[in-house]
Write a structure and sequence with these properties.
- The strands form six sheets. A five-stranded mixed beta sheet has the order 2-10-7-8-4. A four-stranded mixed beta sheet has the order 5-3-9-6.
- It has three domains: about 140 residues, Adenine-n6-DNA-methyltransferase TaqI, Chain A, domain 2; about 90 residues, no CATH class; about 140 residues, Alpha-Beta Complex (Adenine-n6-DNA-methyltransferase TaqI, Chain A, domain 2), CATH 3.90.220.
- By secondary structure, the protein is an alpha+beta fold.
- It is elongated and about 75 Å long.
């Protein structure tokens, strides 16, 4: 279909946003204040609420207000988040508002701009971070079909969006069910479930350890402790949803370990995040390493299967967080860990259960990978569908959307 391509300034008024001063009288009022992060959480469609709000004074003194029915687009950090405002809304300097100057269906242009996000990003300029200027945005060309066709395309994509969201929700539910099933299996094999009477068979953790070591950070005023070729040094950010750790934060010199600046943890240790928002997370260490002071290494005895020990602590993560004594900041101190009750069957049973849990984990992760690939295909198909619909490559009066 041959639709005219017009610059955005022909059909929208482009308005810049801003941030008022931090004075109390500017914040916490009844006017939503959108940022790129708020638009990113919406992902598709419309925005009504934001993390922060402004007072009337704040909006007047340091921001702009887009009326309901406007389009908000992030023009830096990053470029290309798009949503329609369902209420009058202020916004910061990372966004710009497109306020309609002519009769149009805002939904159609939201979808079109989403489809063109890559092109918008390519137009960004700047040395520190990329930004899409008002002039460049104002001259960005968009297709402008007749109003009735805009509505038909928007209705078609709204229906497709509902189906896509429903499919993605089902995949999220399936992933959650896989995790819950594995957690139940791990609780069964490690004795954390009610299958075993922990009151009679549980033993304090200290009985199975040869060491509980807390990590350390080299003094900030001293240089040269971190190198390009050294021993991995971990922090809480390196703990993933997998048993193994992510890439280390830094590599520490062997001489710093020999000098006792930071400790060394042996392979086979279970690392535990002992403080902060991720307290209770654990990972299995399959190589010698060090860590910062938020990490505790639990080193099992030689007559304990280190992998079973890890799965025992992994299964107990929520229990550790729930029962640890702290007031505000989550802290799992070493004394509490040493007295934590665990179940330890004979060594052969430990090894057998550890092998079975490793197999179950790999099976679950393989299924999660399949689900993730399907989700990526779904999003790719959705992006293609938007592009085809807003550019007229498909006739939405006869198209069925997509089947996934």
């Amino acid at each position: 279909m041959n639709w005219p391509a017009l610059p955005l300034r022909r059909i929208f008024r482009i308005v810049n946003g801003g941030t008022p001063s931090p004075a109390d009288e500017n914040w916490g009022g009844g006017i939503p204040w959108a940022t790129p992060a708020d638009l990113g959480r919406v992902r598709f469609g419309s925005i009504e609420t934001t993390q922060r709000t402004l007072t009337t004074l704040g909006a007047a003194s340091g921001s702009s207000i887009a009326p309901a029915g406007s389009i908000l687009i992030s023009t830096r950090a990053p470029i290309g988040y798009v949503a329609s405002a369902t209420v009058d809304m202020a916004f910061n300097q990372g966004c710009r508002a497109l306020i309609p100057k002519v009769a149009l269906d805002v939904r159609f242009f939201v979808y079109q701009l989403l489809a063109m996000a890559d092109r918008l990003q390519m137009l960004g300029q700047g040395s520190t971070f990329l930004e899409l200027s008002s002039d460049v945005l104002a001259n960005f060309p968009v297709y402008v079909p007749p109003l009735e066709y805009q509505r038909r395309v928007a209705d078609f994509l709204d229906c497709a969006l509902k189906r896509m969201v429903s499919l993605r929700r089902r995949r999220v539910d399936l992933s959650r069910a896989l995790r819950e099933r594995f957690l139940a299996t791990a609780a069964l094999y490690t004795g954390r479930s009610m299958v075993w009477d922990l009151s009679s068979e549980a033993i304090p953790l200290r009985r199975f350890l040869i060491g509980v070591k807390t990590g350390a950070t080299p003094p900030s005023l001293e240089e040269g402790h971190f190198v390009d070729d050294g021993i991995p040094w971990y922090g809480p950010a390196n703990f993933l949803d997998d048993p193994e750790l992510g890439a280390p934060t830094k590599l520490v010199r062997r001489e710093s370990i020999s000098a006792g600046v930071v400790p060394i943890f042996p392979a086979g240790s279970t690392l535990l995040v002992g403080i902060g928002a991720t307290a209770g997370k654990v990972a299995y260490l399959d190589h010698p390493a060090s860590a910062n002071q938020q990490i505790t290494a639990l080193v099992p005895r030689s007559d304990v299967c280190s992998r079973f020990f890890f799965w025992q602590m992994w299964s107990a993560g929520d229990e550790l967080r729930r029962t640890a004594p702290y007031t505000t900041l989550p802290i799992i101190n070493n004394d509490f860990v040493k007295s934590f009750p665990v179940y330890m069957p004979g060594i052969e049973e430990q090894k057998s259960h550890a092998r079975e849990l490793d197999v179950e984990w790999r099976r679950m992760r393989a299924l999660e990978d399949v689900i993730a690939r399907l989700d990526r295909l779904l999003l790719d198909r959705w992006q293609t569908l938007i592009t085809e619909a807003v550019t007229g490559r498909i006739d939405v009066s006869t198209a069925r959307g997509f089947e996934v």
